[in-house]
Every structure is written in structure tokens, then in C-alpha cells.
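User: two proteins, same treatment. go.

Assistant:
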Amino acid sequence: MRKVLIVCMVLLVVSGAIVFAGGKKEEAPAVEAKPFAGQTITALYFSATYAEAAKEYSAEFTELTGAEVRIVDFPYITLYEKMGLALSTGDDTYDIVTPACQWDGEFEPFMEDLEPYIKRDNFDTSDFLPGLWEQSGKWAGKIMGFPFSNTPQTLSYRTDLIDEFPQTWDEFFVLMDKIHDPANGLYAISFPGVKEQLSGLWMMVQWSLGGRWADADWNLTINSTETREALKIARKWFDYADPAAPAWTLAEADAAFLQGNAAVCFSWPTLAIGPNGDNPEKSKVVGKWAIAPIPYAKNGVTVLSSWDIGIPKAAKHKDAAWEWIKFYTSKEKQLKNYVDYSILPSRASVWEKPEVKNSKMYPHKAASDQGAVIWWRIPAGTMAETYVRDAVSNYVTDQWDLEKSVKFMENGFTKLLSDYPPAPGVKNTGR
């Protein structure tokens, strides 16, 4: 009897250590459930809600896979420098990086091609918005990452002061004249006046007017009527803003709106107004705000902010990194990203979830559908942005006149395209 009992116990132990997957026997879940135990992967993020969400999810990922996740994050400018240096030198510190989509063309040579991983795991990518993915995560036929955010530039406005938001810039300024009341502490507009942010706002105006920097074949078109008109519009914003606005970052612009001191805020609503607008501890405009696409004259094209996530070629723990990418970009996490962090989804199905479709942030979908694009994604793109920053900043502060500002951009772009020409066959898919 004792021998029978021992045999039965052995059989139970052996059978309990075998499971099937795809018709093949493999080791027990107790082993397979944590295939990366003992590994630590390091992920580099932008210091914003994306990193905050990643930090929250790291413990769950460790429980599922055994891999520890270390999240490192930096502000925008610092992140570009840190990421670029690590990738270009073959530094293996980071197993995962999250480039802004405008950096893709510059960083792609140092990134792992994810297509073999997709095929190996039969990973379904059909839910990622095709147009977004082409601008964020794909470059020159290579899949270097997946987009995990889809943020078109929009604006926030006070619904107790504005019944229906204007669709054109002419209508916009007529309305601002009526609302602007600085004597009583109400400015018509708040916006970040520092040149790193103001330049992006100017871009959306130029593009909405039908302008662009160059055509599809990289012939410059920056010296245009649309460029001049956009500069004039950006300069006019300052007539309706707090005198301190030229020194404001996003934080100050958002705070002015949340404290009830501005009727309209040109910002990224997902970063502060979305999460805090209806929190009475942080907002004086609870229940009195909404999101709208930007005004326009010719089209509704606006600036896209998207970040993609991929694996550096030098990474030490590529398989564990790939598991994190699938985990962080999953439908479940994208929905949680939206609900808890106001991170707009890159998956089509998540936009249709009731929690998204019935929320205040849903107008971003209309802005995205109208057209949200990025500027040049070639290596010269980031340098081109610096010319725009200087030109716009110097014009709106009356240090340069209109023609000097336009020529500065044109001459700068000409030099960049000469010094860093796009690779043969690469078209300008941005503006």
C-alpha cells in the first residue's frame, strides 16, 4: 500500500510539472511563468505620465515574468541628449528606449528590428492605428518600435465663457476681444511662451493655414505667405496673455487655466488639465472646461506628439524587453493609461471603449482624424526645429522683423539639407 501511495505521489508530481502549449509539452507554469527571473531591464522614458504609468506597472510585470523593471526618465531636451548618446555609442545601459517620433530617422540605425519578434510570437499588430504607426515607430521599411501615445495638439477652453469654440483664426480673435479682461484678472489666452514650446504652437498654426516647411521631395517652401501669417498670429497671442507668458513653461500655462485666470489654454491638455481639471483640490474650473481642435483657415492639420517604444541593438536583455513592450502597449494597459493618466491610445479599439468615447478628452480623436503630423523625421529634423525656435521667439519678442525671421529659417533649412541630406528615396512625410 505504501509503495502504491509513493508511486501515485511521484506520478502526480511529474504530471503537475508538465503542461502543454501549442500541442507541445513544456515545463510547469511555476517555471515558465517567470522565465526572466533574476534579470533587470532598464527603460528610458520622458519625464511625464508615460514614465509614471510605467513605474506603476513595473511590479505587476515582475510578478508575471520575474524580471525587475527600472524606469529612468528625463525632461524632453535632456532625454534627447541622453538617448542619442547611449544609442550612438553602443552603450548597453538601456534595454528599452522611447524616442519621440521626430527622432525616429536619427535613431533607427541603432534600434533593433522588431519584425522577427512579431513573427516569432505571432503578435497581432492590426489594432495599432496605421497612419500613426507610419509616423511613430516605422522608418525606411523597418519596425523600430510601437507607438504608445497619440496626442494631437488641441486646446482647452472655458465652457462658462464660450458657448461654441470658433473654427477660424479670424473668429477666434473676435471672441478673444470680447473675453479679455485683465483688469479683473482674466486673460483670454494662456500658453507656454518659452521657445521650446512656443515653436510647436507656431507649427500647428502654419500647418493649419496650409503651409509646410518643404514638399515631399524636400524642396523648401518655408518662405511663404502662410509662414508670415502664422508668425503674425503667434505674435498676436501675446496681446491677450499675462505679461509673464514669455517666460512660462507648460506648467505655468496650465496653472493659469486651472486657477481660472485664462479662458483658453494652448497646451497639451493630457499633461495637466485633463487629469486635474475636475479635481476640486487642484482646479477652480471644475465642470467648466472642454477640449477643442485648434482654429484653422485651410485645414485642421495640427502637431502630433507621439512616442514609440523599442529595443536598442546594444541591449543586454532583449527578450525581456520585448515582453515589456507587449505588456506596456497592450489594450488593457492602453485603456488604463487613458483612464488613470490621460495618455491617448494608439490602438483603434481603445478609442471605442466607453471610458474613452464618453470622456472629455475624446475630441482629440476628431483632431487626430483631421490630421496630426510631425515635422521632419530625418536626422536634420531636430536641428531644423532649433531654427524654428529661434525665429519664432525673436519675432514675437520684437527682436527680429518678419523678413529676418523667415529668412533665418530658410537659410538654416537650406544648410541642414545640404549638410545632412535625406537618404535616397526617403520622402518628406511630415510638414
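Protein 2:
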Amino acid sequence: MAIRIHPTAEVSPKALIGDGTSVWHHAQIREEAQVGKNCIIGKGVYIDAGVRIGDKVKIQNYVSIYRGVTIEEGAFIGPHVCFTNDLYPRAVNPDGSLKGAEDWTLVETCIGRGASIGANATIRCGVTIGEWAIIGAGSVVTHDVPPYGLVYGNPARLHGFVCPCGRRLEEKGRSGESVALCCPHCGREILISLDDWRAIV
């Protein structure tokens, strides 16, 4: 399948773009970035140097993805989501000199397979968002999110667990250190740790 790049998009010749991917108006993809197959890169998206994006990822308009972020297969990134990569951001050093690449430490972030991040969420660097998790719109994520976790708020807190189909899971039973959850919509069963279940607020 052909790669589709809008004439207004700016894609570095050193970036790798997978077959079937569409890059829309005014998007920018920097050098050494890797974008998988059959992705959708929306209008005004910024993908920094070295970012890794898996296959079948949908990135909505005006998302900013900075160096150090990895997004796994099938993830959904809503409009205006912002990722960060520096825990101590400053424009200048204490002596007033302009900060350069050697004056900061890159902090990596990983978004798991199938996870969804709602519009206008901010993801603090250094976190891992587990597979199939959902981040509510406008949330500020400052801690790791377990697989299938449903988090929202500022700061984002765990409020439950969701099925890969997106619906909220219900408790079915417990066995040892695990909790069995069931989707009332599709019937899928998911097993999570008791510790993660107890973390629900």
C-alpha cells in the first residue's frame, strides 16, 4: 500500500514511514522517527526525532510527541494530547547560559498496545501506560497506568478497568492474588492483579 503524505507536511528523508500510512496537513516528522504501517497522522501533528510508533496507530490533530516516546501498535492518541520528556525543564542553566542537548536528561515514556488517550490529556514523561488502558479527556497523567486501567482527572487516578472493546469491566470473582473481570457488552473476561484492583479510588 502506498504512503500518503500531504504536500504541506514536512517529513524528514531520514524518517521511516510504513506502508499504508497517511500523513495529513502541516504535520512534521523529524529525522530518525519511525512510524509503522497503516497509521493515521492527523493535521498539525509533531513527531520528534527518534520517536517510535507502531502499526495501526491513530494520532489525531495537533498532538505533540517528543523524543523518548514509544507508542505501540493500535494505540489511539486524541487531539491536542501533549507528551513531555524532561522532568526539570528550563530554558537556561543557573548561570544564565542557554541550555543545550548536553544539559538535560531524556526521560522515556511508553504507551502500550491498544491504549487510548483522550483529547487534551498531558502525559508526564517517565510513565508507562499499559495495554488497552483509557486516559480520560483533559487528564494529567503523572504515574504508571496498569493494563486495561481507566484513569482520569488532574492528577489522573485509577477509577476502574476497561475491556479492549472500550466498555467498563465488572468484577466476576477473585482467586488468590487475582481478580476476574467481565465485560457486560462483549462477554470478554480479563484477569488483573488484586493490587491493581485495590488501587481504584
